[in-house]
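Request: Give me one sample?
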Amino acid sequence: MSISRSLVIAALLSSSLPAFADGKISGTVDAKPSKYLKDTIVYIKEVPSTKLAAKTFVVDQKGMAFVPHIVLIAVGDTVKFKNGDKFDHNVMSPDGGYDLGTWGGGGEKEHVFAKPGVFAQVCKIHPEMLAYVFVGQNRFAAVVDDNGSFTIDGVPAGSYELVVWNPKLKAASKNVTVVDKGAATVKLSLAR
């Protein structure tokens, strides 16, 4: 087969394949009262045909705080909890029904999250320490910034239910449609 004929066949094959072009959802969330905005998560409830390879995420206990304060994962993912301080810490979840025990500085323990939800993480030794592990059906989620802005990138074209989670306030979910290479913009409001 000649080189020019091979190039024509390759061009025809590539033009008949569907383009893989993801979009994004961005927007803002406002909160009344605004002091509760910082712990807000926006996520797509379900993305059909989502197949994810399990990943491991790290949450450190450093300076008497969980770092990061919120971690976004999917069902089947693992969180490795480290102790970056020079004294003992504990990790337990009143929502998840587990207690990983207490361990010293430099140590670490892991937990696999098998079901979706938002799970508070606390240290029984230092009750002022609090973090959240958000476990979704997928990884299409974002924590809002200080101004309430968020962006969820890499969203496949389709129609979705966009949900807001906050530990103190509530918001109605919204239906959002994303087109190939498109950007959907939404405004959401949290209130008591």
Summary: The two ends are 71 Å apart (CA to CA). The chain has two domains: 22-50+140-192, 51-136. The longest helix spans residues 3-16.
